[in-house]
Each structure stands twice: as C-alpha cells, then as structure tokens.
Write a structure and sequence with these properties.
Keywords: Flavoprotein, FMN, NAD, NADP, Nucleotide-binding, Oxidoreductase. Pfam families: Nitroreductase. It is an enzyme of class 1 (oxidoreductase). The protein is α+β, with helices and mostly antiparallel strands. The protein folds into 2 domains: about 5-200, NADH Oxidase (3-Layer(aba) Sandwich), CATH 3.40.109.10; about 205-235, no CATH class. It has 8 helices and 4 strands; from the N terminus they run ααβααβαβαβαα. The protein has helices at about 5-20, 35-45, 65-80, 90-95, 130-150, 160-165, 195, 225-230; strands at about 55-60, 105-110, 150-155, 175-185. The chain has a 4-stranded antiparallel β-sheet with strand order 1-2-4-3, sandwiched between helices. Helix 1 packs across helix 5 (about 130-150). The longest helix is centred in the N-terminal third of the chain and has 19 residues, at about 65-80. It is globular and about 60 Å long. It starts with 6 loop residues before the first helix and ends in a 6-residue tail after the last helix.
C-alpha cells in the first residue's frame, strides 16, 4: 500500500515513543517557534475521540503572574501529599524536582468539555468516561509530537483543579485534565527520572500481559507471542 510507513519512518515513530520523557528540568531559554507549536497542537487535535466529539480545548499560557499562581498551587499540593507517606520516603519525595512551571516558556492546560455537540455522543452512553479518555489520546499525540520536534513536555499533576478553574476562568462544566510545561531542553534523559531515582521500577511486559482472561499468563494459542514478550524485546 502506498500509505504504508517506510522502515525509516517506523524507526522514527518508535524512537519518539521510547525516548519520550516527562520533563521537569533542564529547560532552556530558547523560545518555541510559532510554526512548531502550531504543528504540535495540530497533532493533538488529530487524536481519536469517542463519537468524533473532539472534546478537548488547549489553553496556552505565557503570563508570569498566572504561572506563579499555578506554581503556588503545586507547592501547596506537594506539601499536602507528602503527608501520605512516611519517612524516609517523605523526604525523598520532597526532594524531587517535579515541575518546570516557571522555567518552561509555554504552559498549556488541556481541558475536557462534555457539552460539545450536545448531550448524545456516539459511544459515550455506556462509558461516560470515554470522553476523558479521548482527551488523554490528544495529550499523548501532543507529547509524541513535541518529542519529535525536540521539545520537552512535563505533565504537572500535583495541582488543585479548583485553582486551575479559577485562574484560567474555566466554565463550571469544563474539566482541566492536564497542565503541561513545554520547552526546549538541554537533553532528554536515558530513563524516566523516577526510575533513575529508584522510586519505582519499570515493570516487565510479561508481568502486565494476560491471555484471554485476567491473570492468565500462559495460553497455548499465544505461545509465540508469549515467548517474544518473555524476551522483553525493545524495539527502539
């Protein structure tokens, strides 16, 4: 087929996936070119969505005053959440650099609007959360596109949604799904920061794939795939 990917294109695709990182630091002062930012947003907007509802919106933020208010929310929430773990994990958690709100040139809030195209959306009647899942698909598109353009992206989830709604003047029915920091970086880490820090290990693929039913790790009909998964191949 003429639209098939070439081997070089396939390698580029997998490179973007395996080298994508949640970037919290090492942002440079280099601004993101308008054309590049537009390309990234277009990629996000071409994500799949339940019932073709396209329930996302993207709020671009440069204002330093807004950034400082969001940063304050992060600091408050990080301190509050640290009380959920005991020492020595608490101190280790507090030592982590987990955002780049002020350092990144562009902040971006991705929202979910369940009211788009009216109350009935094909595919959402049985699973209402499918709208939120669609927004997450847009975020993943955006993330991979940013990595392809050499731009770091960090998802700041230690935030108060109420603070976001107030400072970004979101309508009551609109849900903030992701607050992202975007910018060029000095380098992309070889491994995720929390893996490098020993906070959590990367699970092996064989431990998260079941066959036909929950918790079934072995099945004769899937023997070839089982063996490949056990080899833990990396296609980067």
């Amino acid at each position: 087929m003429k639209d098939n990917f070439t081997e070089d294109e396939k390698r580029g695709f997998y490179k973007a996936i395996y080298s994508r990182r949640d970037v919290r630091s090492h942002f440079t002062s280099k601004p993101i070119e308008d054309e590049v930012l537009s390309k990234i947003l277009h990629a996000a907007h071409h994500a799949p969505s339940v019932g073709f509802s396209q329930p996302w919106n993207f709020i671009l933020i440069k204002d330093i005053g807004t950034k400082k208010k969001i940063k304050k929310s992060f600091e408050d929430e990080k301190k509050r959440s640290s009380q959920l773990v005991e020492e020595p994990k608490r101190s280790k958690y507090l030592s982590f650099k987990l955002e780049g709100i002020l350092e990144s040139p562009v902040n971006l809030c991705v929202t979910y609007d369940p009211s788009k195209f009216g109350p009935f959306v094909i595919g959402r009647s049985s699973i209402p959360e499918a709208g939120l899942y669609s927004v997450c698909c847009a975020i993943q598109n955006l993330w991979l596109s940013a990595r392809t353009e050499g731009i770091g992206l960090g998802w700041v989830s230690i935030l108060s949604n109420e603070t976001l709604k107030e400072n970004l003047e979101l309508p009551e029915h609109v849900v903030p799904v992701a607050y992202l920091c975007l910018g060029y970086v000095d380098d992309f880490a070889e491994k995720p920061d929390l893996e490098t820090a020993g906070w959590l290990p990367r699970l092996e693929l064989k431990d998260v794939v079941y066959f036909e039913k929950w918790n079934e790790h072995e099945n004769e009909n899937w023997k070839s795939v089982q063996n490949m998964i056990k080899e833990n191949l990396n296609y980067a």
